[in-house]
Amino acid sequence: MTEEPQCQAMSEPDWAKPRDPNSPRKEKAKSVIESLKKTAFVLGTALICFAAARNSITWHVERFWGASGDFWQTRWRWILDLFGHNDVAVIVLGTTLETFFVFWFVNAFFLFIDITGRPKWALKYKIQDGQNMPVDKKKLIRAIKVVLFNQLVVGVGLTAALIPVYRWRGCSIDENLPSFHWVLFEIACFTLVEEFGFYYSHRLAHHPKIYKYIHKQHHEWTAPIGIVSIYAHPLEHLVSNLCPIVLGPLLMGSHIATAWLWFSIALTTTNISHSGYHFPFLPSPEAHDFHHLKFNQNYGVLGVLDRLHGTDIQFRNSVAYDRHIMMIGLTPLTEAFPDRPKKGCSPKKGCSDKIE
């Protein structure tokens, strides 16, 4: 698919520009055979280690799950009693309250920084330096109104409409929660379903005949903030935001408690991806932030389909890709991987107008 060309008033930041092809960080092309050998070695080693540790790990996990199982089981029964064991109330009202709380709880932290500019130490982790510092209040209020509409009208409407499908697929509110191992397996399946659903629906939304009517609204924020994750046209929110997340639990016929856990994970990660900050020990938001800057890169969630379809080439050739890691230290990645100097720059003469 071809994407609508974008006109940007400001020059793109240095970290978004392609790396110098002569840079020592430039990866050399590797043969397919060599890649397969390394992959086989890594997978083989991992399988051997897993086989050796499986019994021990399983024993510890089952002890933990057994010890905490009564706690979660008690909490779940309390929720069922609260809603009178009514599946419609649990699925519609319970899902709405759970997702609403998670979304605003996570974004409260990011909004506080965006509005107040505090704490000061947090600003050094800003990806697009100088953008939304502070955030435009009028633009923020408009975004909040759209977000609330999508949550309380589109989201609730879809959840209610899917009640017959939930029942047909066997998505229960049973008192007995699923096992720890099964929950992990389902979460892994949900993640793959989301990658496929979001990538292709998102890329379709960038088609010129659709973009200006639907997806352009979301891209008003070239430097996104957390709540922008669901700042979108209602149709886009339905097709591209909600369906890829809901589809997994429906296909698996999952327990509603597992679905709630998955919704919490998906909401948290998408809020972080749109936050505009790359904080230590959190998933990297560099890929999706780059998408908002460039428009035609990084359509997916995991990056698997972007690699397959070649829609991350510009990203992989940029400094932003070097920074696309989970930080395990406190040094900002803009310092660990600094922007390249512009052409004509020197400590004594300064910089010319030409950029690399």
UniProtKB/TrEMBL annotation:
Which portions of the chain have biased composition (kind: Basic and acidic residues)? 14-28
UniProt-annotated stretches for the region Disordered: 1-28
Offer one Pfam family short name for this entry: FA_hydroxylase
Q: What is the lineage of its organism?
A: Eukaryota, Metazoa, Cnidaria, Anthozoa, Hexacorallia
Q: Where in the cell is it found?
A: Membrane
Sorted UniProt keywords:
Membrane, Transmembrane, Transmembrane helix
Q: Which GO terms describe its biological process?
A: sterol biosynthetic process
GO CC terms, sorted: endoplasmic reticulum membrane
The protein's name in its UniProt record: Fatty acid hydroxylase domain-containing protein
Positions the record marks as coiled coil are none
